[in-house]
Design a protein that fits this description.
single chain, 521 residues, mainly beta, Jelly Rolls, 7-stranded mixed β-sheet, 5-stranded mixed β-sheet, 0% helix
Length: 521
């Protein structure tokens, strides 16, 4: 390689710029088929060489002055099928790229280097290549590494440490991980996020969109257990993970990859953005996909998001005082989704399911009787196929002390019938869908008993009277929704039960209460 002096001074003190020809690419120095014979090449410079034969290898020795990100591109000979490899000073191969066929260029991106010696190796895969007179050009680029991906980061062991609250720019490139034991393995980028403070935090992660790539973002613990996966977007779209709960101090691993192994983009980088916020109980604490990981629901309202598809969000409600309470829960609608709200007992068994409305509409769980203990509210998307972390839902709850005259769910079967005294009334809801409310009363002397049920908007109500053996005695129903129902019958002394329900199981009303009263004339 010919040295390139920057300035040449003549005897009069005048200066001349060096000739452009002298400042061109470095020339390979054959033989350079091994690391001992490697041609010196400064990081950020270019080199020119030839492929002397089908099996010719050209080694280049780079000496990095400090930490940085190195890129390299090889091309320029139409008969050659290039492969480009990157080695450390111990000649351990760190990265290899072979994305094109005969006549194509190859490009290594985002190679992390520190001060020291590295090697670039140019090789050819076309056994019939025969163009020793045409030059290739090997171009390198050296940049500061701050905010950039540092390859190789293809495994959890080689995960690149990133600071929460920053941005890292990388590439889905190459598309294949040629040094993996699996010859079909796709390219992966691993990052580690360390939380050094003690406490509960929310980690938000955003991956920018890249043309031709459908990204998948996964979160793992240090034992390799996958905690969460985000795969809501499509080709050319980004991914977001919101309100992922982390307990500090701790370390978490992020795995970013293209959904389709043959899809990559060497021209457009992705941006990986992270944000760490103190947890204040106002949002879900992911992962909360099962009972043991349920987010404590201590405030009056909480926000969450259905992401990824099929994501169930569990919330834990703990009642620590003795007494009887009524629990009401309201779930807001989300664009494009049909949400379902479930109530479960302390073991995770279903108590009630609110699926009264349709797509994009709110769901309400009304007047559920609760006592001291733990309960769980579960939010899910009905189809299990939709997700969007950008549109959160709001879940609110209200606990009020129960008092006589209010319905106590569950009272939807003869095994959970609610007692009611003659002369008293009770207020309740026809909700959720197919809800049936059972009440029981005693008649102490023979007489005419009147059962009065007020009308409820959008519900055609009906009532059925049973004896103590649950044999049907009489029934009455409203002619149309909103009308009251009256049933009058002479009864002997004894115990009786009444079932209230909508004539059409689909009809329900979570807003307006009914009033039911038993009187003896």
């Amino acid at each position: 390689m010919v040295p390139c002096p920057r300035l040449i001074k003549n005897f009069k003190g005048l200066t001349l710029l060096c000739l452009l020809a002298a400042c061109g690419p470095a020339r390979e120095s054959e033989p350079n088929d091994s690391y001992q014979q490697a041609t010196p090449l400064k990081a950020g410079r270019r080199a020119a060489g030839t492929v002397a034969g089908p099996k010719d290898q050209d080694w280049y020795r780079l000496e990095a002055a400090g930490e940085g990100a190195l890129s390299a591109k090889i091309g320029g000979i139409r008969d050659v099928d290039f492969a480009l490899s990157f080695f450390d000073k111990e000649r351990r191969e760190l990265k290899r790229v072979d994305e094109t066929t005969v006549g194509g260029d190859e490009q290594l991106l985002d190679l992390g280097v520190s001060a020291g010696v590295y090697y670039l190796v140019v090789s050819n895969k076309n056994e019939t290549a025969n163009n020793p007179g045409q030059n290739y050009e090997l171009a390198t680029k050296f940049e500061p590494s701050s905010g950039k991906e540092r390859e190789p980061d293809d495994t959890a062991l080689g995960a690149q440490s990133v600071e929460a609250g920053g941005v890292v720019r990388g590439h889905y490139w190459p598309t294949r991980s040629l040094l993996s034991e699996d010859p079909e393995a796709g390219e992966e980028d691993w990052y580690s996020v360390e939380v050094t403070q003690t406490g509960l935090f929310l980690l938000n992660i955003d991956v920018g969109e890249v043309p031709k790539v459908d990204p998948i973002l996964e979160v793992y613990d240090t034992n390799g257990y996958k905690l969460k996966e985000a795969d809501a977007g499509g080709v050319g779209e980004g991914e977001s993970l919101r309100n992922f709960g982390v307990r500090g101090p701790g370390k978490f691993l992020l795995r970013l990859r293209s959904k389709y192994k043959t899809a990559g983009n060497q021209d457009v980088p992705y941006d990986l953005m992270t944000e760490l916020l103190p947890y204040q109980g106002r949002t879900e604490f992911e992962p909360n996909d099962q009972r043991v990981d349920a987010t404590p629901f201590e405030l009056d309202s909480i926000q969450g998001a259905v992401a990824p598809a099929g994501d169930p969000d569990w919330y834990k409600i703990s009642i620590s005082t003795d007494g009887k309470f009524l629990l009401r829960a309201d779930l807001s609608g989300v664009p494009g989704m049909d949400l379902v709200l479930s109530l479960k007992d302390s073991l995770g068994n279903d108590l009630s399911v609110a699926d009264n409305a349709g797509k994009e509409q709110a769901e309400v769980l009304t007047g559920w009787g609760a006592a001291k203990g733990d309960y769980f509210l579960v939010v899910a998307e009905k189809s299990g196929k939709k997700a969007d972390s950008r549109d959160p839902y709001t879940l609110t709850k209200k606990l009020i002390a129960w008092q006589a005259g209010l319905e106590w769910e569950t009272n939807d079967s003869t095994a959970a019938v609610q007692p009611l005294r003659v002369g008293e009334s009770v207020d309740g809801y026809f909700a959720p869908r197919s809800d049936a409310d059972w009440y029981e009363f005693n008649v102490y002397q023979k007489g005419v008993v009147e059962l009065e049920l007020t009308g409820v908007i959008n519900v055609a109500t009906g009532m059925t009277l049973f004896d103590q053996e649950y044999k049907e005695l009489a029934s009455a129903s409203a002619a149309k929704p909103g009308e009251p129902v009256l049933l009058s019958r002479e009864l002997d002394r004894g115990t009786y039960a009444v079932r209230l329900r909508a004539a059409d199981p689909v009809q329900n009303n979570v807003r307006d209460k009914y009033s039911f009263r038993v009187r003896v004339k």
